């Protein structure tokens, strides 16, 4: 592709308001260098390419989930040895952990509970967590499963900034991974979150046996929402023994980076988070993801129940790349 033609393609991508699979797939299929150029060009229009947002994730209630997500060790329906269910964490402990994360440089604090949906009896504690973490001056995010419109409004009123509810994959492939809820259920919760006035955090997982078309379709769905998610986590599957996907073949690293680049082009003002799976990525692969437009990571040694690179490793990688943590308010 000629340089002038490539620039024209970038400009068209940046002004597009409705994506088709064909348009998105044509970008995905570009020569790798051309795709990276496009993604980095779009990225630099909206973000400092040498700053990365640091978020921290805490499991406030682990195990015993009624869903049957094929990738998750927290499912009560998992065929192998099940993770023991815990009680909802005490509010003060959550706030204390958030304070440590803030002092360590994290600007967003994400709290996750292994629920199909929160019960009314738990909402008072959940709302108190939001208010407490917000009081530390951090951005707040939660992932609690499906939400009713009333629950979404309660969370908004408590000060919740973001709600995470991943699509996981395409509508076509969804029932291969989860059968206890539908793709439409996912979209309904995202609509409830947006209608309540909160920001949306929604992405997916790569390496679950999906096709390129499935990855593209997932991003098309996200980009074509009435408002694209402000935060788009892209996870690489961590095959967990005992889960349905324990023997899933790993995704090709170049295919993963291509998906990051496509997400950046299609959702130019969103934070694209390099999420679960970084323990299986080389430093070079992570660097390619940052070059492709990823500008957010989770820090800390665990993500809910999965391993994550430690902060010492992330700090060393950032120094090698000349990358600095994004400060609150930089976006």
Automatic annotation (TrEMBL):
What Pfam family is a match, any one? BATS
Coiled-coil blocks? none
The entry lists its GO molecular-function terms as:
2 iron, 2 sulfur cluster binding; 4 iron, 4 sulfur cluster binding; biotin synthase activity; iron ion binding
Question: Which InterPro entries does the UniProt entry name for this protein?
Answer: Aldolase_TIM, BATS_dom, Biotin_synth/BioAB, Biotin_synthase, Elp3/MiaA/NifB-like_rSAM, rSAM, rSAM_sf
Q: Which family does the entry's similarity section mention?
A: Belongs to the radical SAM superfamily. Biotin synthase family.
User: What does the record give as cofactor?
Assistant: [4Fe-4S] cluster; [2Fe-2S] cluster
- Catalytic activity annotated for this protein? (4R,5S)-dethiobiotin + (sulfur carrier)-SH + 2 reduced [2Fe-2S]-[ferredoxin] + 2 S-adenosyl-L-methionine = (sulfur carrier)-H + biotin + 2 5'-deoxyadenosine + 2 L-methionine + 2 oxidized [2Fe-2S]-[ferredoxin]
Q: What is this protein called?
A: Biotin synthase
